[in-house]
Design a protein that fits this description.
The chain is of the alpha/beta class. The chain folds into 2 domains: 214 residues, Rossmann fold; 273 residues, 3-Layer(aba) Sandwich (UDP-N-acetylmuramoyl-L-alanine:D-glutamate ligase), CATH 3.40.1190.20. It has a 10-stranded mixed sheet with strand order 8-17-16-15-14-13-12-9-10-11, sandwiched between helices. Strand 1, helix 3 and strand 2 form a beta-alpha-beta unit. The mean pLDDT is 97. It binds ligand NAX, adenosine-5'-diphosphate and potassium ion (K). The site of adenosine-5'-diphosphate (ADP) has 18 residues, from helix 15.
Length: 501
């Protein structure tokens, strides 16, 4: 189910597969797959298409030369910008070069004004794939910037040149990458296409397995999120049920001046199916939430934490009282999700971290990159330069199911399993959407979902709600966290209708 492979894993699969095949077959298959993907992007009258193919010095360039030859034979007007290898290249790359040279494709000189000034139908990026070792510099950097200024489709072969296939970060310092609209990736899907800068730079990703025998693929520890991972917990409601059947959620937060955050989380918990929801305040509880009077607003200190699933952190603040509440929540047997200020308190108090790590039932943590960085004693840049690695590290350190938020949210379990989410969009980049996510995950926990599946489903539904709202025109600009709440309710009910038992 949507496995993702590291560079090292892809190289091992490729090596094993190549050993069982005649020389050059994999590059030929990659070139054919690239050409098929390109043809899908060209008009029916291929002869009118002007295609610029960038062929780098390694095997990614070999794939591009094969692709160029196929497109020329299909009748397209193909121009190749060829960057020959500095030393002897692979035999298959030399064969690919010959094939391109004997086709009608034109080998052009690098002329940035021509790149920028031609009305290309498509650019095929075969500069670099898995072998990128340093940032694009000099003429290659200028070429990438010129391509990024074009308005036509850009098809990346294997991955957009300049991007790190494992992490989705642009290889730097001060790096650039080709901004593709489509990526035909070879052998297996790669995490870097789906998180950090990957979602922006890879565009639509299609995997060409190159007919490699399935036996060469070891089981993956990293996947793209999929409804199949959690659908067995989607339950239709039985008639003979009542509010006690669907669990209690207590959202603990709301220090002075920050009452909105727990209300957003609590409203989401209620609207995504929890039977009873409490909004608990560190101090000065609101008498009620007039926008959602079903919520029970209380002082946190008086609350019996054993009775509910606990969502602690939204607007919690950093007071001694807040810290004491977090310690009580950690010590309780209740299902626990810690977010926002609870994560900052944890980062500042190693004793709380130790207590959390020893919780028999585990927990869910939902840090954004800054909160994750504080918990790891790292910088945001370090977290973002390897989001999957950072989420796994935190999950192992705190025995937690970690949701590292952001574009391509990473969910990691203490055992090292990890998933990258595919729903969601920049409409979510506004205050309060994280509170909505914590309330949603808490609600699923209260309804009996296990921690891992609640995190996967919560992140999926949260992103799906934002995707639907954007399709309807309510975003990405100006979408508010409150608007997600009814959209999540619809998404969850639809999902239960389709997949529920
Ligand atoms: N060998 C094969 O049969 C197959 C190869 N494949 C392709 O091969 C690619 C990997 O090939 P390679 O290992 O040759 O790697 P690349 O083609 O990605 O690049 C490696 C070359 O680029 C140079 N280089 C790296 N970074 C540079 C930079 N910033 N500036 C200038 N030069 C730089 C290296 O010195 C080396 O010559 C995959 O991504 C994939 O596209 C796959 O299609 C599967 C089949
Ligand atoms: N550009 C983006 N693309 C996809 N999801 C995003 C983007 N920006 C933010 N999000 C999501 O929005 C939520 C923001 O959470 P957070 O940063 O905690 O906000 P807040 O603390 O204001 O509630 C997370 O679920 C995050 O993954
Ligand atoms: K490429």
């Amino acid at each position: 189910m949507n496995p993702l492979y590291s560079c090292a894993e892809i190289r091992a699969i490729e090596e094993a597969a190549a050993a069982a095949l005649p020389d050059g077959v994999l590059m030929q298959r990659a070139g054919q797959a690239g050409a098929n993907a390109a043809l899908d992007l060209l008009p029916f009258s291929t002869a009118k298409a002007r295609v610029l193919v960038l062929a780098g010095p390694g095997n990614n360039g070999g794939d591009a030369l094969e692709t160029a030859a196929h497109l020329a034979y299909a009748g397209a007007q193909v121009s190749i910008l060829h960057f020959p290898p500095q030393s002897i290249s692979s035999t298959e790359r030399a064969v690919a070069l010959q094939r391109a040279q004997t086709s009608d494709a034109r080998f052009a000189e690098l002329d940035l004004a021509e790149v920028a000034g031609t009305d290309w139908t498509l650019v095929v990026d075969g500069l670099f794939g898995l072998g990128l070792q340093r940032p694009l510099a000099g003429a290659l950097r200028e070429l990438a910037l010129a391509v990024n200024g074009l308005t036509c489709s850009v098809l990346a072969l294997d991955l957009p040149s300049g991007l790190d296939a494992d992490t989705g970060a642009i290889v730097g310092p001060d790096g650039v990458a080709i901004h593709a609209t489509h990526t035909a990736t070879f052998i297996g899907n790669k995490p870097g296409l789906h998180t950090c800068d990957g979602r922006d730079y890879a565009g639509l990703v299609d995997v060409a397995r190159l007919d490699i025998d399935i036996g060469h693929f070891a089981p993956a520890r990293l996947h793209l999120n999929d409804v199949k991972f959690f659908s067995r917990h989607l339950r239709s409601r039985v008639h003979n049920s009542h509010k006690g059947s669907y669990g209690n959620v207590a959202v603990i937060g709301g220090a002075r001046g920050m009452s909105g955050a727990p209300l957003l989380a609590a409203r989401t918990a209620l609207n995504s199916g929890a039977g009873r929801v409490y909004a608990l305040f560190v101090e000065d509880p609101l008498p009620c939430d007039s926008g959602q009077p079903e919520l029970m607003c209380r002082l946190a200190d008086d609350f019996d934490m054993r009775s509910s699933t606990l969502v602690i952190g939204p607007g919690l603040g950093a007071s001694r009282l807040a810290s004491a509440l977090l310690a009580r929540a950690i010590a309780s047997d209740s299902a626990l999700l810690a977010d926002a200020d609870a994560l900052n308190l944890l980062a500042a108090e190693p004793a709380l971290q130790a207590a959390l790590a020893q919780r028999p039932g585990g927990c869910v943590l939902t840090p954004h990159p800054l909160e994750a960085a504080r918990l790891l004693g790292a910088t945001i840049a370090e977290v973002q330069s390897d989001r999957v690695g950072a989420a796994r590290k935190l999950a192992a350190k705190l025995n937690a199911n970690v949701v590292l938020k952001g574009s391509g949210t990473v969910i990691a379990a203490p055992n090292g399993d990890a998933v990258i989410n595919t729903t969601g969009n920049p409409a979510l980049a506004s205050a309060g959407t994280g509170d909505v996510l914590s309330g949603l995950c808490g609600s699923l926990l209260a309804q009996g979902w296990p921690l891992w599946e609640a995190a996967l489903a919560g992140v999926w539904l949260h992103g799906m709600a934002a995707d639907v709202l954007v399709t309807e025109g309510s975003g990405p600009i100006g979408l508010t966290a409150s608007e997600l709440v009814p959209a999540i309710r619809v998404a969850l009910n639809r999902m239960v209708q389709h997949h529920g038992r």
